[in-house]
Write a structure and sequence with these properties.
Order of helices and strands: EEEEEEEEEEEEE
Shape: elongated
Number of strands: 13
Largest sheet: 6 strands, antiparallel
Radius of gyration: 28 Å
Helix content: under 10%
Strand content: 35-45%
Amino acid sequence: MTSGLSYSFGVTPSGNPAATVSVTPPPMFISGGLLFMCAFGGVANPYAVVPTAPAGWTALSPGGSAFGVFYKVATTYESTYTVPFSAACMAEVVVAAYPPATISASSFAQIGPPVNTCTPAFPANVTSTQPVLLFAGALDDGATGITSGQHSENLPPGWTTIIPPIGSNAQGAPGGTQSSCIGLSEYLGPTSNPTITSAQAGTFETGFVVLSFAQPSIASPVQQTFTVVRSVNGIVKAHDAGAAVNLANPAIFGM
């Protein structure tokens, strides 16, 4: 069982770089819950572009990062979000909805290029009740001999996939505009370092987010004391000491 509620995504048109990507809110979210956004894109040179958090969103990823992970507290009504990139690119943006929670920690890493496998370090001090989100992005090199087409990645085995890898199709030639993809998986509690793979050599970007949910409080039991009157209106009924006494529940017939 995962804690994610739903997700939505937007991508640049196939083979048509753009400087913005728009995405609608997830189909199901809770007012006061958390929304997470991940944005990633690629161009021919430099290897990646930088997304900017839309108004009302806060960045978790480092400033100037090509792999943007942002969050906000959901309101009752959410409208379409538009993410600007530092240059026209092939890009995708995903948004995932979660219940109200506290972000306990986050960490980010870049591995490559060019590699087909990455194993980022799992966060420390995660407890058995904390869900850990793993945003994973893969970007092909766009170098000579590497095809710039639909990029793909395999999320770590043993993790629950929340958003399967979603990519933009550059429809380019080797050395052209680089294509990218991003996905989201979740794991409850501590585990070993996850492994992400891709059939296309390139650069991996990863972001861990550790969540904490408030534990429901259970009130202390309240002891109630009743006084049993044994004789009412001249009717006397003896009870032995310690005998069980039950409340009467007589049958009532309708007229």
